[in-house]
Amino acid sequence: MENMFHSFITYLVLVLALGGSIGSASAKTNLTKVTWAHAVNDAEFLTRVLDSDIQFIEADISLGYLIEDVTKENEIPIMAHPPAVESNLSLETFLKRILKFNREANVASKVKGIKLDFKSIGAFERSIGIIRTSYDMAKFDTWINADILPGPVDNTANVPVDPTRFFTAARRLGKATLSIGWTTRWGADFTDGSYSDAQVDAMINVIRANDIDKVGNAITFPVRAGIVANSVTNMIRLFCALKDTNDVTFTIWSSAGDAVDVEKLREFIFTTGLDRTYVDVPDDLHEKLHLDKTAFENTCKKTMQARCVDY
């Protein structure tokens, strides 16, 4: 378990939080300042994160077994990333521990948001009742994350979560933020790839086909840093198609070692706006972005809202 903890701790992002709590005015005007912990799938790691200044907890949910379930007869939603099928932390315990912490927080800046990353539609559907009874989504930031569509680049290995079943289940969670994206294939040797017209159209269409535009959930699109740097035009088009019905943001993420055109990515961030762009990337990439320096202030000061006139 000690080795497991140390492997997980490498995912912990400890970028200094310059803003206030997630719900504060300062954090909302500059979402790039929000700090993250990743793969919080272990009970000891969760303890460490709750004791830290991290603002958002990301964790993976799969169907599997608690380690103490030696007979392996009780398959439940657990905190684990495939191919792992065992954990010392169930989804129910994970949520109840964070809820207790948030309710007892003596200042708003201590409150943690959660991002629940579902690895299969079965895990998500089995988790709905647990989330509803074990957490207060109305009071504390709650994101439901899944890759619901195939995306770049020639990405045939990863199977997306069924979008219709995902949205059907998500509607039972009320106004939780939907973090919905595309499966991707990328790495250190990739330089050419983007979110295509067809992939953006597919996302717009599946949101509308499932009436998510009508129910008005907030939506954040998790986009891979190396790919979205080449996709500014289509991301603006995506925002413009949904801005009147849903609160739309982007969450930039990256795997360690991904090829990223830093200047293009900075341009994307300043084009979409610091108030609409979370930056959840490894420390070394975050530092290279120099988000405290507005190098694109003159070329990108046109608001996203104003850019929609062109679409």
Automatic annotation (TrEMBL):
Residues 1-27 form the signal peptide. The keyword Glycoprotein does not apply. One of its GO terms (cellular component) is extracellular space. Residues 30-285 form the Menorin-like domain. Keywords: Signal. InterPro entries: Menorin_dom. It holds the Pfam family Menorin_N. The keyword Signal applies. Belongs to the menorin family. This is Menorin-like domain-containing protein.
